[in-house]
Amino acid sequence: MKRIFVVAAIAALLLGCAPVKHVPVVVEVARLSVTQPVYPPQAVRNRQEGTVMLLVLVGKDGLPKDIGVSQSSGFRPLDREAIRTVSHWTFRPKTVDGIPVDGYVRIPLNFSLNHLEPQSSPSP
Q: Hey, which CATH number is domain 26-113, 3.40.50.2300, 3.30.2420.10, 3.30.2130.10, 3.40.50.720?
């Protein structure tokens, strides 16, 4: 019986001394300040619609450092407007153990003619 107790005590000591593996706490990028894109007049005239998928590198300061089109809407004016719009957004940067780091986020922007706000006509 003493022998089992000694083995258990040694095992407890060894397990208690094992180094604990650090698992970092990661908080991903989040949008803070968001503005809606302006539907390009040329795209409205040409009845162009679609979704632009952007890949954005958000810096430690929460500002976009690089914006790329990962999937085009198929229409250059919509793609350009999506990039222009997101370039003015602010984000909560990605953090690792509470320290801000650069991080990527995918952002879809949908352009639909059905969701256009009515334009007010000029007063006579």
A: 3.30.2420.10
pLDDT band at 122 (very low <50, low <70, confident <90, very high): very low
Residue from 29, 35, 32, 50 nearest 85 by CA: 35
- The pTM (predicted TM-score) of the whole model is 0.75
Total Cβ atoms within 10 A of residue 58: 27
Q: Comparing C-alpha atoms, which of 33, 84, 94, 88 is closest to residue 58?
A: 94
Residue 94 has pLDDT above 50, yes or no: yes
